[in-house]
Design a protein that fits this description.
With about 500 residues, the protein is of the alpha+beta class. The protein has helices spanning about 5-25, 30-40, 155-165, 260-270, 275-280, 340-345, 370-380, 385-400, 415-420, 425-435, 495-500, and strands spanning about 45-50, 55-65, 70-85, 85-100, 105-110, 120-125, 130-135, 140-145, 170-180, 185-205, 210-230, 235-240, 245-250, 255-260, 290, 305-315, 325-330, 330-335, 405, 420, 440-450, 455-465, 470, 485-490, 505-510. It is built from eleven helices and 25 strands. A 14-stranded antiparallel beta sheet has the order 8-7-6-5-4-3-2-1-14-13-12-11-10-9. Strands 15, 21, 22, 23 and 24 form a five-stranded mixed beta sheet that branches. A hairpin with a 2-residue loop joins strand 17 (about 325-330) and strand 18. It starts with a helix and ends with a strand.
Length: about 500
């Protein structure tokens, strides 16, 4: 090699070394930025007022504790929704453990509500396996979920965005999120919008005249607005430089506003609950009632509704709301009962389309691979290979063998099979488990049942027959009629998602 080439090689090596040093110091990778920034995370607590249409329906808090090599984030959510003269209370508590680079390591979660209490513990092994131990009344089960990439909790996302230097207007990225309340992994698209100035109460004092806490001092905060999209639903949240949510508004009209502890908690705890409950004792026509028709002792007339037209105002829940048999034209929503054409499937059982694999696989509380579920599915379906006929056979069997009874505890397909009792939630999970065991793609959905001029919470299955078709083993309908208004798709998401719609979704039957 000539002297000139040696000199050129030395210059190139020197420039490469300088570029590497500049990149390391000026443009460190996200993991390095998080590791450095996480060392500066200090213990903190934030309190929130939860509201729908200007009315407070609950409170929440987020607490960050530093524990040497790890960080613990505790989230508390309390909702109290009045319906038919009764306050329906939902409580959720989660404690997540993170590494000092904000990697999700595990979470302990407890949930108490109308669907019954359950608890879950999730642990991550090597960023490649999520193990969920679920405990419900009557038993427990373990589910293992392979991970293609590291995941974060929804409550941790703001912290990662702020500390990782991702709060830059115009930036869009996709992230895998594990929601402990839904016990499911989902993909979220995040877009960072403009920076705003928000004013929030910093402290409160007790007003003896009004017998309530009122703001005393206010704090001005700079916060970036981020738009989160998942499952067709959109949430706008404002995040400060420390990674705390200052305000959040969902597409369903549910709001979360940061405030002083006394304003979020004490005022809500000491409100006149008797007056709030009495005001809900006689709901108006078209009102959303925060309970099931079975709990409210509302009886179906036996007639089937082929078509339902509604005027929708205020907010729309998302893509789960506008798909399948539900179509929106202007502000008018049209729901149709499936006809003969929709029931004519173009495949034979078992379904082999890889895109339908998630609707054939077991999941928490829907144990389609359990030997008892498998045996019952074979007995019910027999040699039937027509998907529509198999779906009808399962519908008839669940209707006949599960006695109507308001259940206590999260719906569990194996337990429902053993006890033969339950409400719409129990019948739905058993139907979906039996259908999947028979090779019939099925999913749980939840929404509203139009009955006697009011909308009640309801759950029912949908089966894939070329498109998704609603069936109802609770009412014995195949296919389900147009009185079924789907809001969300999924299992334990039902109560957590639907309870937030109270007062936010306005429906007028046309």
């Amino acid at each position: 090699m000539t002297r000139r080439r040696w000199a050129a090689a030395i210059v190139v090596a020197w420039l490469a070394t300088i570029a590497w040093l500049v990149k390391r110091e000026v443009f460190p990778p996200t993991g390095a930025r998080l590791a450095e920034a996480a060392l500066r995370v200090a213990p903190a607590a934030a309190y929130y007022r939860l509201g729908v249409s200007g009315q407070q329906v609950g409170f929440a808090s987020t607490t960050i504790d530093t524990l040497g090599p790890s960080i613990r984030v505790t989230d508390v959510l309390v909702l109290q929704v009045p319906a038919l003269g009764v306050l329906h209370r939902t409580t959720a508590l989660s404690r997540a453990t993170l590494s000092r680079t904000l990697r999700f390591e595990g979470v302990d979660m407890k949930f108490v509500g109308d669907v019954g209490p359950f608890s879950a513990r999730g642990t991550v092994t090597g960023d490649s396996l999520l193990t969920v131990d679920l405990a419900v009344a009557g038993g427990s089960e373990t589910t293992r979920v392979p991970l293609s990439r590291p995941i974060v909790l929804p409550s941790i996302l703001p912290l990662r965005l702020a500390l990782g230097g991702e709060l830059k207007a115009g930036k869009t990225f996709t992230i895998a999120v594990f929601d402990p309340m839904l016990l499911a992994q989902r993909t979220m698209t995040v877009t960072v919008a403009t920076e705003s100035t928000l004013v929030v109460p910093d402290s409160a004092g007790f007003d003896s005249t009004a017998m309530a806490w009122t703001p005393v001092r206010f704090d001005t905060m700079r916060a970036f607005r981020i738009e989160e999209q998942t499952g067709g639903a959109t949430t706008n949240a404002w995040i400060d430089a420390q990674g705390h949510i200052v305000r959040a508004v969902s597409s369903t009209g549910f709001t979360m506003e940061r405030t002083a502890f006394e304003l979020a908690y004490e005022n809500f705890r000491h409100r006149d609950t008797a007056r709030v409950a009495r005001a809900s004792a006689t709901p108006a026509a078209g009102e959303v009632v925060a309970t099931t028709a079975l709990s409210a002792r509302a009886r179906p007339s036996g007639d089937t509704l082929p078509l339902l037209r509604l005027r929708v105002s205020d907010v729309l829940p998302g893509d789960d709301f506008l798909s399948g048999a539900q179509h929106l034209t202007g502000d008018t929503l049209v729901v149709r009962r499936a006809g003969a054409a929709e029931l004519a499937a173009r495949y034979r059982l078992p379904a082999r389309d890889p895109t339908l694999a998630p609707f054939l696989a077991p999941e928490p509380l829907i144990q389609s691979e359990d030997a008892r579920i498998q045996a019952q599915a074979r007995q019910v379906v027999g040699r039937e290979r027509d998907p529509a006929r198999a779906a009808s056979l399962i519908n008839e069997w669940v209707r006949a063998h599960v006695a109507p009874q308001v259940a206590v505890g999260a719906p569990n397909a194996v337990r429902v099979l053993a006890t033969g009792r339950g409400d719409c939630n129990e019948r739905t999970v058993l139907y979906v488990a039996l259908a999947r065991a028979a090779g019939l793609p099925a999913r749980s959905v939840a929404g509203l049942l139009y009955l006697d001029g009011r909308f009640y919470y309801h759950a029912w299955p949908e089966v894939y027959l070329g498109d998704w078709v609603a069936v109802d083993p609770t009412l014995g309908q195949f296919p389900a009629d147009a009185a079924h208004l789907r809001i969300v798709i999924g299992g334990l998401a039902r109560q957590a998602e639907l309870v937030r719609l109270v007062g936010g979704l306005k429906l007028e039957v046309l």
